[in-house]
Amino acid sequence: MSIEKHTGLKRLLFSINNSWAGVTDAFKTEDAFRHIFIFSTLLILISFTLSISKIEHVLLILCSFLLIVIELLNTAIETVVDRISLEIHPLSKRAKDMAGAAQLVAIIATLLTWLIVIF
Question: What predicted TM-score, i.e. pTM, was given to this entire model?
Answer without folding.
Answer: 0.87
